[in-house]
Amino acid sequence: MKYINHYRYLFVCFFLAILPFFALSFPGIREYVFDNFMVSAIYNGVIIAIYITGSLCALFTILKNISAKDILIAQDASRKNSILSNLNQVLFAGEPKQCDFNLLMELDDNVSTARNQRLSFIMSCSNVSTLVGLLGTFAGLSITIGSIGNLLSSPSDVGGDNASNTLNMIVTMVASLSEPLKGMNTAFVSSIYGVVCAILLTSQSVFVRSSYSLVSTEIKKLKIIS
Hints:
mainly alpha, 8 helices
């Protein structure tokens, strides 16, 4: 139980990261995703790549923060950690382990800077995935509008008393609706991909921020005793 509590942010963030892939285990969702992916494959592929990048950044950051917290608790000078800018090797090098307050202030600033940069990157991934989804939406809508315009502007060969020609016109119009409907499908599918990925990345950023709070708390404790 202690192990689970220690890595709780990592586990929750990992669950959020793999949630879309876990959802594919449900037949209805899997069928929908596989059937509609190629409708806007370029936009969906870009969104998925952005999502994977943002998720990996979130997981890596939380793991580094957990390691940084352990280093600060143990006052370990032998381990390296990019979150701490390796300042722990200077802080805890002396005997007895008396921390320099100025170094602690510098360490706190470095952690705050790293937090802002990582959170900014993850949120940028979230925003870009939404924008790519919107781009796919506009592309799909433009296809729809263009197809409807072509359909309405096409000449009609129907005679007023010719039932056969009327039936042919109806069949032709119904067949011509496939292109506008394809454009609408592109619009909605790309929007769904973008919004879902943005929601999950934003949720992961919450736990990344919480993991940084753990490091900041340990630094504050060291400031008090220094």
